[in-house]
Every structure is written in structure tokens, then in C-alpha cells.
């Protein structure tokens, strides 16, 4: 090659590089590329991944041998949605199985049928009506779905690994048809929401979560995988139910249980080394142990421990802002926590770390932060006098000298603790419906805060510690109220509204997953989770938080997720964990500014648009 040719080539590459740095245009990975299919005719119409129903164009109908198999009128996406919504309203009543089947479950059944025949249309409807349908595919309706799953099961969705498959999981994982999986949600069914051990029926929660990963984060639905690990059940009703679909044996425990989870993790990461695994609804006994066992070796996180904590932290920081104070005043908040399970301890650990970081992030700061919490479990106030105290709760046990000065004792009731502590925040993660009784709420009226906050975070709705009506009517109009499941706002009269903020995990877990995926981070670090929580806390305007609105509208979930994912990517870069994703290597990723990271995220979010289908013989 001549020097002139080399010079021309060099100059061209420099020009391309300059153009790239000037425009920084990111070609969408999830864009409108034609899709090659190896089937035609009825096979296409029966495949939910490729079926467009009446939206197939005439040229596609000819190309895919569909002419005559569909009504002649080609319908637009908007017309399809309009038809479906009309059918939904008409069929809701007809879809009921009887008096025990609620209206929400009827909607779930109809949506599920659409999911079975046309995935793109399903997600188009879900995104367009996310406020209405998120409570159907996720909490609270998903709890009812899981309880009835053996009766609702029509076609398999996801994978099932069981104790009976020990030694076979490495080969089993190749039975899944997708060569690329970006996101797995897995459960062992041991603690589904606040409903307890539902065994194999718990797979419903993993399907619901992944629906939200697709709708909120734009994870490609062909690259998600819901998984159930069936190690048995201790639910006696299921063990005796002849129609139960899972293993009818008591749960494995100890080393046998660990061996099954170890084998599963090795199998999925062998086939899909870059997959992210979200653990969901594992009982407290195993949630922390499995998180600590795997988090430094695999790309995984536990939404009940870390996601719930992040959403709660965002709400707690929002409550500080609603008091007219800066978020940096968070370490001054006195917080009574009802519940010491995996969610409660997760929130406590995250809140303590957040306070400590604001106080200087040293040992003294960490110790000082710990003094801001009073933990009450089923046995009452947790103190150092408690026998057989759980190791995870031990750091938050109150010292005897402290409680003596406060007029409290080991095992003091929640009402007693609230009355004596006069907290800024009453946080419920107990899964005990109605725990915030009239006595407890009346005690909170003595709070030293100008605007006390009540977080009734347990799911589903029946497990909420109190209702917003109870909170506003007993404590007063000026409170901040948040819950885990959706409630309607309360009319306080005289044109005033008591805002009911839903502290839903869907504000964070889709962004955490998407940000981890697009950063290529080797792990999900505490810093990435903290960045996600702080991003959510800052999302609300000053005007909104002063009105008592501390969480945004679910209708903005795509934008919220984009912002959270960008914050996670930025933190991964700062911690030197980012390794890049596909064409965007770590070096290029590090060059992006804030706006460019947001564009990069948006360009990689899947949208439910019908692709052009091209037939090709095998």
C-alpha cells in the first residue's frame, strides 16, 4: 500500500472519529430491523413472538402465505388497541370463573390470553395503559394469580428447575430456545409477597416482574426468562392438593438446598455468561445468605432486600424534602421500623449506610446513624436483651441504657415505642395487615416532626399496615403517606387532597437491571443501588414534594427507568466496574457525558413495534 493510500485511510478514520465525537449518534440496537423467520402461514399466526394479527400488510401476507387466513381489512396499531380495549371492557364479566374470581383476576386472564397469541400487541397495550395494568400484571393482582396458578395454568411460560433435576441442570438449560438471555427473574416460591409459601405457583411473580422489565425498561421480551426453582413446599394445603403442579414434598433445607441453588447458578451463567439474575421472594432465612454468597461472583441482586430498600430510601429522602428540609438532614430523622424480615433488614442496612455517607462515611458516622432506628418485630422492641436474636437484626438492637432512659423495655409494643420515641417516620414492612392500629396512629400524633411520614409498605393490599384513610383521619392532614400497593388519594375536604404515594419496587428494579446490562458491570454494587435510589428521590420537583407527593406517577415509568439506568451506568463507570455492552466498549462508554448516556440508554430500550418479517427457508 502506498503512503498516499495510508494517508487517505488514516484521514478518513480521523474524520469518522471526529464525526462520532461531534454527533455521538447511537444506532439503536433494538431498532426497526427486518426479522428473518423460518415459518409461514398458520405457523406464523400461532407464534406469539411474530404474530401481528390483522396488522399484517398485504405484501407480508403474500410473502408469508397469509392471504386468505386473515380478514381482508389491514388494521393499524391504534385500531388494534382500540378493538382490544373494547373487547376487554365487554369480556371482563364473562371471564370470571364465579363468585371467588375478582374483576382484577378477570382482567389478568384476558391480558394473559393476548400475551399467548401476540406478544408485541400485549406489550403495546401494557405500555400504553401502564397505570391501569401494572396492578394487574404485578402487585396486588399477581398475588391472587399465584394463589390460583395451578388452576389458571394453560401453557408453559418460563423454565422450572426442581430438586428432582439435580445433576441435570447444566444440560436442561439448553432446552430454552433463546441463545441470548439478558434478564432472569427467579424464585423458589417460599415467600410470595406477604402470602407465604406458594411453592411452584410462585412462578407467577417472576412472569409479572419480567413483564415490567419489558414495559418499563425496554428489555427485549425474547431475551427474558422467568424461572421457578421447586425445592418442595411446606404449605400443607398444597401438599394435599391433587391438582397442585409442583413437587409434593417438604422443602429441602441446609446444604441440600444450597446445592440446588449452586447448580442452578452455575448452569445459567455457563450458558449465558452476561445474564443478570434477580432473586425474588425467597424467604428471609435464605434471602441474605444467597445474596452474600453470589453477589461478588455473579451479576445478580435481590429485589426484596435491595430493591425494596432503594425505593424506601428514595421515599425517606423525599419525606425529608417534604418537610422543607434538604436531603442532607436525613441523618437527623428518628425512624421506627415495624418488621425485621428480609425487606425490613434490607431497608435498615441501606438507610444506615445512606445516613453514614452523609455524616462522613467513617466508623463514628456509621455508629451514629445506627442510633436513629427502633426496630419492632413480632416479639416487640428489639434490644440487646433479646435471646436468640437474628444476626441480621443484631446491629439494630437498642442498648439497655438507652431504652431505660426512654422509658422503654425489651419487647415493648409498637404503640409504646411510637409514643415514647415520637418518630419522624413510621415504616411498616411487617406483612401484617392493620398493624398500624388506631392506638399506634394516635401515638404518632405526638411526633416531634412538623410533617410525620407513614410508610405502610407491605404487599399485597390486604397486608398493608394501614389504609390512607385511617392515617389521614387519625394522625392529621399534614402527614406524608406511602404504601407498597396502590390506594386512591383521600379527599380531605376544602379542595385539599391527601396524596397516597405508592412506593412500588418497579420504580427501581427495571432501571437497576437495564443500567447493569448496558454498563456491562461485573456486579451490582451498593454504590449503583444508592445511585438508583438518589436518582428516584431527586426526580420529583420541589413543588410536588411540598404537596406531599414523594413518588412520581407510574405513567412516567419509561422515563424514570431511563434516568435510573443512566445513574446506575454513571456509578458503574466511576467505580471502574463498567465493561461495556455490545458495540459500546468500556473505553467509549467512559467518554460519554450525562446527556449522551441518557441517549445511549434510550436507544437500547426495546419498543413494541411490529418488525418487517422476511421468510427464509431453513
UniProtKB/TrEMBL annotation:
Record's keyword terms, sorted: Metal-binding, Mitochondrion, NAD, Oxidoreductase, Transit peptide
The keyword Flavoprotein appears for this protein: no
Catalytic residues (UniProt): 138 (proton donor), 209 (proton acceptor)
Binding sites annotated in the UniProt record for (S)-malate: 191, 459, 504
Family annotation (Gene3D superfamilies): Malic enzyme, N-terminal domain, NAD(P)-binding Rossmann-like Domain
Residues forming coiled coils: none
GO biological process: malate metabolic process
Binding site for a divalent metal cation: 280-281, 304
InterPro entries hit by this protein: Aminoacid_DH-like_N_sf, Malic_enzyme_CS, Malic_N_dom, Malic_N_dom_sf, Malic_NAD-bd, Malic_OxRdtase, NAD(P)-bd_dom_sf
Cofactor: Mn(2+); Mg(2+)
Pfam family, one: Malic_M
Cellular component per GO, a single term: mitochondrial matrix
Domain Malic enzyme NAD-binding: 305-573
Protein's cellular compartments: Mitochondrion matrix
Gene Ontology molecular function terms on file: malate dehydrogenase (decarboxylating) (NAD+) activity; metal ion binding; NAD binding; protein homodimerization activity
Main location: mitochondrion
Domain (Malic enzyme N-terminal): residue spans on this chain: 115-295
Keyword Nucleotidyltransferase set for record: no
Co-factor remark: Divalent metal cations. Prefers magnesium or manganese.
Quaternary assembly: Heterodimer of two related subunits.
Protein family according to the UniProt entry: Belongs to the malic enzymes family.
NCBIfam families: PRK13529.1
Entry protein name: Malic enzyme
Species in which this protein is naturally found: Centaurea solstitialis
Native organism taxonomy: Eukaryota, Viridiplantae, Streptophyta, Embryophyta, Tracheophyta
Amino acid at each position: 500500500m502506498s503512503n498516499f493510500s495510508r494517508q487517505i485511510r488514516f484521514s478518513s478514520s480521523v474524520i469518522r472519529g471526529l464525526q462520532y465525537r461531534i454527533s455521538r449518534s447511537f444506532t439503536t440496537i433494538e431498532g426497526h430491523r427486518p426479522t428473518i423467520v423460518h415459518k409461514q402461514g398458520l405457523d406464523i399466526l400461532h407464534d406469539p413472538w411474530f404474530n401481528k394479527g390483522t396488522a399484517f400488510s398485504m405484501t407480508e401476507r403474500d410473502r408469508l402465505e397469509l392471504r386468505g387466513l386473515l380478514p381482508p381489512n389491514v388494521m393499524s396499531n391504534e385500531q388494534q388497541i382500540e378493538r382490544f380495549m373494547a373487547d376487554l371492557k365487554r369480556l371482563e364479566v364473562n371471564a370470571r370463573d364465579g363468585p371467588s374470581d375478582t374483576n382484577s383476576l378477570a382482567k389478568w386472564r384476558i391480558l394473559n390470553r393476548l400475551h399467548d397469541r401476540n406478544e408485541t400487541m400485549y406489550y403495546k397495550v401494557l405500555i400504553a395503559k401502564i397505570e391501569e395494568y401494572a396492578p394487574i400484571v404485578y402487585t396486588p393482582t399477581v398475588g391472587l394469580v399465584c394463589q390460583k396458578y395451578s388452576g389458571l395454568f394453560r401453557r408453559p411460560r418460563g423454565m422450572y428447575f426442581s430438586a428432582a433435576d439435580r445433576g441435570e441442570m447444566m444440560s436442561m438449560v439448553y432446552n430454552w430456545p433463546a441463545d441470548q438471555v439478558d434478564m432472569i427473574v427467579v424464585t423458589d416460591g417460599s415467600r410470595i409477597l406477604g402470602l407465604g409459601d406458594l411453592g411452584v405457583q410462585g412462578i407467577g411473580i417472576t412472569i409479572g416482574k419480567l413483564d415490567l422489565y419489558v414495559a418499563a425498561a425496554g428489555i427485549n421480551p425474547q431475551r427474558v426468562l422467568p424461572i421457578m426453582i421447586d425445592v418442595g413446599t411446606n404449605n400443607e394445603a398444597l401438599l394435599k392438593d391433587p391438582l397442585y403442579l409442583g413437587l409434593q414434598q417438604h422443602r429441602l433445607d441446609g446444604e441440600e438446598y444450597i446445592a440446588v441453588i449452586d447448580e442452578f447458578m452455575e448452569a445459567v451463567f455457563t450458558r449465558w455468561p452476561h445474564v443478570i439474575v434477580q432473586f425474588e421472594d425467597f424467604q428471609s432465612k435464605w434471602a441474605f445468605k444467597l445474596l452474600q454468597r453470589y453477589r461478588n461472583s455473579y451479576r445478580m441482586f435481590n429485589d426484596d432486600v435491595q430493591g425494596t430498600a432503594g425505593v424506601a430510601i428514595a421515599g425517606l429522602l423525599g419525606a425529608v424534602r417534604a418537610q422543607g428540609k434538604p436531603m442532607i438532614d436525613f441523618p437527623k430523622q428518628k425512624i421506627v421500623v415495624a418488621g425485621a424480615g428480609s425487606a425490613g433488614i434490607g431497608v435498615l442496612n441501606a438507610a444506615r449506610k445512606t445516613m453514614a455517607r452523609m455524616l462522613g462515611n467513617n466508623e463514628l458516622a456509621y455508629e451514629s446513624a445506627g442510633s436513629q432506628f427502633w426496630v419492632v418485630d413480632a416479639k416487640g422492641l428489639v434490644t440487646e436483651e433479646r435471646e436468640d436474636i437474628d444476626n441480621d437484626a443484631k446491629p439494630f438492637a437498642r442498648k439497655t441504657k438507652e431504652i431505660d432512659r426512654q422509658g422503654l423495655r425489651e419487647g415493648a409494643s409498637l404503640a409504646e415505642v411510637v409514643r415514647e420515641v415520637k418518630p419522624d417516620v413510621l415504616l411498616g414492612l411487617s406483612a401484617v395487615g392493620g398493624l398500624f392500629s388506631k392506638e399506634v396512629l394516635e401515638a404518632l400524633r405526638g411526633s416531634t416532626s412538623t410533617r410525620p411520614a407513614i410508610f405502610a409498605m407491605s404487599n399485597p393490599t390486604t397486608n398493608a399496615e394501614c389504609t390512607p384513610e385511617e392515617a389521614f383521619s387519625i394522625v392529621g392532614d399534614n402527614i406524608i403517606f406511602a404504601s407498597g400497593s396502590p390506594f386512591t388519594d383521600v379527599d380531605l375536604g376544602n379542595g385539599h387532597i391527601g396524596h397516597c404515594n405508592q412506593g412500588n419496587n418497579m420504580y427501581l428494579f427495571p432501571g437497576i437491571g437495564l443500567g447493569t446490562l448496558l454498563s456491562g458491570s461485573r456486579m451490582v454494587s451498593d454504590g449503583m443501588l444508592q445511585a438508583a435510589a438518589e436518582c428516584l428521590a431527586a426526580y420529583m420537583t420541589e413543588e410536588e414534594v411540598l404537596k406531599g407527593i414523594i413518588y412520581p406517577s407510574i405513567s412516567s415509568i419509561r422515563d424514570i427507568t431511563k434516568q435510573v439506568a443512566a445513574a446506575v451506568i454513571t456509578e458503574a463507570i466511576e467505580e471502574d466496574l463498567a465493561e461495556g455492552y455490545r458495540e459500546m466498549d468500556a473505553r467509549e462508554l467512559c467518554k460519554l457525558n450525562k446527556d449522551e448516556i441518557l441517549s445511549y440508554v434510550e436507544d437500547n430500550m426495546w419498543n413494541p413495534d411490529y418488525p418487517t418479517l422476511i421468510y427464509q427457508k431453513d
